[in-house]
Write a structure and sequence with these properties.
Elements lengths: L2 H13 L6 E5 L4 E4 L5 E4 L2 E5 L4 E5 L3 E6 L1 E5 L4 H13 L6 E5 L4 E4 L5 E4 L2 E6 L3 E6 L3 E8 L8
Antiparallel strand pairs: 1-2, 1-6, 3-4, 4-5, 7-13, 8-9, 8-13, 10-11, 11-12
Length: 155
């Protein structure tokens, strides 16, 4: 990918509202998924991206393309459905971050399974900086999960 394409694509993806996760597809076949712009820095045809397990230095010449990840949205109606969906997301292997959007418009990104808890119709997410978001499951508008191409889930 050229430096210009690389910079323009990253600027567009990082500035769009709401943010949508994307993936760097590299010439060696690797894929580096970006779920949060706070974990990404770029300038001059290079990017540094922090994932759960490591820090990646990416040069534009290593990138075949940058693609938005499809999203799967869940809007459940019963407490049992919400809790079943949260369990599925928390226990999936490998774990993939997801977003809980409240009816107020506030969002909470779940970046690790131990950062979310729920039971008895209530839930909590611990955000970076150890800031808690507390909510009732009845306050949840939807759960948004980024889905890599080729993945399928039963709803």
């Amino acid at each position: 990918m050229t430096r210009e394409e690389f910079e323009a694509t990253l600027k567009r993806l990082c500035r769009q509202e709401p943010f949508r996760p994307f993936v760097f597809e590299l010439t060696d076949g690797r894929r580096i998924e970006v779920f949060d712009t706070e974990a990404l820095g770029f300038n001059g045809g290079t990017a540094t991206c922090g994932t759960k397990d490591e820090l990646h230095d990416i040069d534009c010449e290593q990138v075949t393309r940058i693609v938005e990840l499809d999203q799967r949205e869940v809007r459940a109606v019963t407490r049992e459905e919400w809790e079943a969906e949260l369990r599925r997301l928390i226990w999936q292997e490998p774990f993939r971050p997801f977003v809980i959007e409240l009816k107020s418009g506030r969002t909470a990104e779940v970046v690790a399974p131990e950062r979310v808890g729920f039971g008895g119709g209530n839930g909590s997410v611990i955000l970076p900086g150890d800031r808690p978001v507390l909510f009732k499951l009845s306050d949840v508008e939807r759960i948004i999960e980024a889905v890599s191409p080729g993945m399928s889930h039963a709803s």
